[in-house]
Amino acid sequence: MATERTFSIIKPDATRRNLTGAVTKMLEDGGLRVVASKRIHMTREQAEGFYGVHRERPFFNDLCTFMTSGPVVVQVLEGENAVARNREIMGATNPENADEGTIRKVHAESIEANSVHGSDSLENAKIEIDYFFKPEEIVG
Ligand code: UDP
């Protein structure tokens, strides 16, 4: 087992419903440690850059509008196999397909407003962490 870092976002649907603590508790209870965290309001430019890989997808514009519709909490999570572990705790993209007890099953409103983002690979985790955090903002 390897200690990894992954990148998480608590999305606007969750911050709007005051679920920052509830979502973070599920991450912590799942074995992950928050080693960096900040509440920001993403600009359109930031959202479009972050989701650049989805630029050609039909949901891209709506997704960027949603992600800039309110505050988000960006976090760096640390733990054993943190990338895969976080994806397990989050559940499937579409909450209808998410396992019982996952963040998206419990809290998500829709396939778009699905409460959390989590990196899908260690490589992307590094890129996403660097996109939002300076090294000195991460305290392990
Ligand atoms: N999304 C959407 N409609 C879709 C698929 C995805 O609005 O049909 C949004 C959703 O918020 C999702 C994000 O786009 O979390 C990124 O999609 P991805 O397929 O990377 O899913 P994730 O890795 O977040 O589970």
UniProtKB/TrEMBL annotation:
Principal place of residence: cytoplasm
Required co-factors: Mg(2+)
EC number, as in UniProt: 2.7.4.6
Chain positions recorded as ATP binding sites: K11, F59, R87, T93, R104, N114
Gene Ontology cellular-component annotations: cytoplasm
Annotated Nucleoside diphosphate kinase-like domain residues: 3-140
Keyword tags: ATP-binding, Cytoplasm, Kinase, Magnesium, Metal-binding, Nucleotide metabolism, Nucleotide-binding, Phosphoprotein, Transferase
Keyword Kinase: yes
GO BP term, pick one: CTP biosynthetic process
Bilayer-crossing regions: none
Location in the cell: Cytoplasm
Pfam families tied to this protein: NDK
Superkingdom of the organism of origin: Bacteria
Tagged with keyword Phosphoprotein: yes
GO-annotated molecular function: ATP binding; metal ion binding; nucleoside diphosphate kinase activity
Active site as annotated: H117 (pros-phosphohistidine intermediate)
Catalytic activity reported: a ribonucleoside 5'-diphosphate + ATP = a ribonucleoside 5'-triphosphate + ADP; a 2'-deoxyribonucleoside 5'-diphosphate + ATP = a 2'-deoxyribonucleoside 5'-triphosphate + ADP
Function: Major role in the synthesis of nucleoside triphosphates other than ATP. The ATP gamma phosphate is transferred to the NDP beta phosphate via a ping-pong mechanism, using a phosphorylated active-site intermediate.
Summary of subunit composition and partner proteins: Homotetramer.
UniProt cross-references to NCBIfam families, sorted A to Z: PRK00668.1
Similarity field: Belongs to the NDK family.
Name of the protein in question: Nucleoside diphosphate kinase
Organism: Sphingomonas piscis
